[in-house]
Amino acid sequence: ETGVTQTPRHLVMGMTNKKSLKCEQHLGHNAMYWYKQSAKKPLELMFVYNFKEQTENNSVPSRFSPECPNSSHLFLHLHTLQPEDSALYLCASSQEKGDTQYFGPGTRLTVL
Amino acid sequence: DAKTTQPPSMDCAEGRAANLPCNHSTISGNEYVYWYRQIHSQGPQYIIHGLKNNETNEMASLIITEDRKSSTLILPHATLRDTAVYYCIVSRESNFGNEKLTFGTGTRLTIIP
User: Fold this and answer.
1) Among A25, B12, B65, B91, which residue is least crowded by beta carbons within 10 Å?
2) Are A95 and A3 contacting, i.e. CB atoms less than 8 angstroms apart?
3) CA torsion, points A53, A55, A58, A62, in degrees to nearest 10?
4) Residue B99: what pLDDT?
5) More confident residue, A96 or B27
């Protein structure tokens, strides 16, 4: 247990569906991150939030929409995804941006 | 961030010390060396990090060469649960505003019974 939880752990969705991934950290951290890990590829940073403000969008397509209502929660809203978006989506948090990051278990997403 | 180079895979006998090398020849003075590992289908797990001095914690030891161009992660008594992909990453501290952890392909360490 790292103190970072993600739900759901597995998600299968069609290309026309809308779904959301949830991340919650119980560590009192101020920075949160979304990463994507496709099969046999390195982790790719998607978004960074620091004190609820988005500080980085790593050229992510608009079909991925993050939301950070407070420092403990981070969402990733998904709509009209493509099969190539199937991947493991990982959330992480750190005390401040740039500090050691602690990862959640990830959501395994399959887009049909 | 400086690029790192790691061997793609390594084997280690259970109970022996696992020594994982990492080259980071272009590291700059304000960049830390971080090590994470990822057990199959789980999120990455922080192991250890350091700047100049060698570091040790309950999981591992980190040996950084004097010129800082390479480092070695040591798992002193490897167990089967240490089988994972190990990532060596260099990253600046937060005061410099760089929050990126750029993960490469890492080293796939297999512990052999």
Assistant:
1) B65
2) no
3) 30
4) 56
5) B27
